[in-house]
Structure formats: C-alpha cells, structure tokens
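Example record for the data management plan.
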Amino acid sequence: MLKILQAAVMRSLRTAHPLPLVFLLMTAGAFGTEWSVKYNQQKICALKGSTVFMNGTFTHPEGLTVTETFWVISPVPRVESTDLSKEPDYSGRVEFFTDDQKHFSLKLSDVMKMDEHRFCFKIETNEVKERWTGVPGVQLRVTELHVEAPEEVTKGETANLTCKTTCSLTDPFIWYKNGRPLTTKAIKNNQLHLQTVSSEDAGSYSCAVGGSQHLRSTAHSLRVRYPPKRVSVSISPSGEIVEGSSVTLTCSSDGNPPVKNYTWFKGSTSVGEGKTYSIPNIRSEHSGEYTCQSQNDHGQRRSTAVQINVLYPPKNVSVSICSSGEIVEGSSVTLTCSSDGNPPVKNYTWYKEGGTSPVGSGHRYSIINMTADHTGLYYCEAQNDHGALNGTVMVTVKTGGSVVLYSVVLSVVVGVSLCGNAALLTVVFWMRGKRQKRNLEERDDENADPNAQDDTYTALQPSARSSDDVYHTLAAVQSSSPDDPYAALDPRSRSPEYDTLAVRSTH
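Corresponding structural encoding:
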C-alpha cells in the first residue's frame, strides 16, 4: 500500500506545475530520498565582461541513475528546454561541472547584458520520465560601473565621487586617478571623499571592484577651478642683451579657467599688457626688474622678477680740468675722464690733437710743469667691450709778465679750495723764482753788500721776511679767512704789494 501511494505522488509531481523551491528542496522524509536542488546563491549581480559562477548541490530518488546534467535558462512549464551549451549565444562561453558528491556549477564567461535570465540546473536519469529541473534557479543581473561626481569644483571646496552600479556588488571598490590606483583612506564603501579640493585633485577618475580590476568604469574628468599659479617669465633671445636689439618677454602660468589678463611691470610701474611684452630697439634706460601679473576669475598672482641688463658702449664722455686756476707756465694740471657704459669703462687713452701716439692712459692724466707747448686740444677715448667714444677739452697755457703773475696771485685763493695746498705751493715756488730775479736786479743797481745772504730758503723763514715781502702778503691772504678764501680779493683787504702789482699790470 505504501509503494502504491509513493508512485501516485511521483506521478502527480511529474504532471503538475513546478512547485516552489521550498517544496522541491526536500530531504529524507517519510518517502525516503527525493528530488532536490539547492543553489548557493539565488541572486547574483555580475559586471559586464566578467566571469560568473553558479554553484549548488542536488539529490535524486534512490534507484535512479543520473545520465545527464545541464543548464537551461528561464524554463517554461510543459516546454522542452534546450541545453544552454547548445544555444548559439552561449557557445564557447559556458562550462558545466558535477562530481560524485552531487555538487554542480556553471561557469559563464564574458557576461553580457543579454544574459539577464534565470539559470536552472536540469537532471536526466535512466528513466525517461524521471528528470528534474531545479526551479526557480539563479537570477542573474548584469551591471556596469560609472563614476558619479561633479564635473567642476572650486579650490577649497569638498567633492564626493561615487562608483555607481544598478545592483549591489559585494567585492571592495578600487579607485584610480589618471590610471593609477589610489590608496587614500578617503575611500569608504563605493565613495571617494575629497576634502578641501586643490588644483592637484584635478584629473581623470575611474573605479573597479576587487577581482575584476580590468573591468573599470569609464573615466570621469574632474576639473578644479583655481587662481593662477606657477607664474614665470622667459626672455627671448637668451644671453646678453645689447643696446639696439629687440627683446620679448613671455609670461606663462597655470590657472583654471585659463589666464586671460596679463599685466607687465617694471619695478612698480605698469608698462604693458598681454601674454608677451616686446621692447624693440632696447636702450640702457630699459634696464631693470620686470614682473608679470596673471589674473583669472578666481584671483591673481605675480611672477618673480627677471632682470634685464642692457649692455651698451661708452656715452656721455666728458673731461674735467683740475688746476689752481688759470693755467700758467710751471703749474700742474690733472685731466679727469668720466663716462657711462655697461660694462663700465676700463680702458682710457689720452691723445693730444696733432699727435699720432697716445700721451697717456688711465682714468686721469696729469701734466707737471706746464709750458706753452702743452697748449692744445686734448681728448680721452673711453672703451669697453661694446665700443668707444671720445671726450675733448681745450688746455691753454698763459705766458708773459706781470699779467700772468696777477692772474696767478688771484687764483691762489681759489686754487686752495679747488685742488688743495699743492696749488699754493706751486705758486709759492714760482714767486720765489721771481723774487730771486728781482733781488739780483736790485743788488746790481744798488751794489748790495756781497756778504748778504742769498739762501733762497731764507725767504721762507718768517724772521727773515720784510713786511713788504710778497710771501708775507700771500701768507696773510691765506690765513686771513680760512672759511672764505674769496675775501682776499676784496680791494679793501689787500696789502700794498697787491696794489703795486695792480699798478704795474696796467702799465
């Protein structure tokens, strides 16, 4: 009676509609071992392009021999299902596995969106009517990764990037920036958190899941708005800048949005606008420090200064004369050459008009014991690496009688202030010679005592000078007012000796 009941139940199961899984997954009971199919997962979410495995175990009634197992998709009641491996769309993409312990599995490669079906394991036995399909099977859903994030953020803001899917993936997420994996702690679940965004955070971001790193999402470009940075100036042509050439300064900077406003400064003075600043026919006054200021919608920044050093030949060459006043025979004169050049002038050469050879070299040229032959036009040639230029001066040596003497006497006071005591000594010795000549003439006329002293140095001793001695007069003039040497020229303050000279000079 029990066997008849069991046979009736089996017939009803074979002819009835598929029953719920809970009923199908029967284990040992009153009727012994029955048909059962148990899947490890009933729902699987897989990435497009990945490989997925569906696993489980099965049992069958005693006395039956399993002849074939295979997989089918979305079986329909009372409709014969086709072996999945024989479907054209799955050819070469599926593999079936079973073992003696009644474990089974399906390997599906290169998962596609069209693979979203219910996959069921089917068992056939030596009894044609004894076969089983494990329904409802495993539901497969196929998803793709994509990054959800703002396209543009401003420096200092916060940005969150999310790796989105259409179904839940259990494997950990991996983030990439410009193709390189990120190891930052800012990754939480499927999100990448960027706190206080900087310009360095701009780039191309993508994501993947562990075990399928080769199946990355499409890249998402994150742009960061920031003020100009790394502002620099280049000079063309490079190398030395010579007066008369052309120079172009170019400003480079990094900013988002790109810099559109450039302002050029020489020192603190604005001199131009635009990405480039050109100086045609550059001159020495263009030398100095130049900077470029870059500006966009988020701020501005100025470059470090670049130095323009314009090289040029000597110019503004001039010659000055240092003497005790009017130039007379026996006096000394120093000519000094001054010039402007870059690099500074180092070579000075002195010439006298009419001569074929230089008369001297150096910044200064001195002539000791002037004579009438020294009268003439002198010129100084200043030279540096970029050229030469001359400066001229006329030197006139005065000669003749008391007119010259008076001129020299008048120039003594001025000369003290112009060239120092050296000029005064020159005049003293010149006047000493004149005095000796006069004394000789007086001794001849008056038949002076032959024992009288003729030591020229005696005249310089204060105890040996007479009150009308011209040396005494000079000493008085020099010491009368050290702060105002020109007071000696006042007719009311001069000695009778000067009056005598003035009278003699008018004859």
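Summary line stored alongside the record: The longest helix spans residues 421-446.
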